[in-house]
Specification:
mainly alpha, 0% strand
Amino acid sequence: MEDWAHYMVARDLNYMMPIKAPSHAIEVYRSEFDSAWRHGALWITVWHPFLSGRLARLEAISDLIEYMHEKGGVWFATLGEIASHIEKLVETGAWSPRVEVFPQYPTPIPELENGL
């Protein structure tokens, strides 16, 4: 979840992504949050200051955060707090991360004829 698709207008994309009203963006965020909350899932969003940092958008975000607080059972955490929590889970054996073995292929991937 992020604000780019809702608020970014780019000449590079031939202006094909019109700016949406904050109410529309918040409706999307809230719907995704409600589903994550119902299923005990993780909900993360990215709000770029140069996109969401406008007054009407900030008011909408503030209202959404207030809604989340009122819903209850929501942990607002920094990345550092999340990392500490995961480290404690690993230390106590309550959770163990999946370990990816690299490289995933036994030999280098052969190059294609066109160089890709």
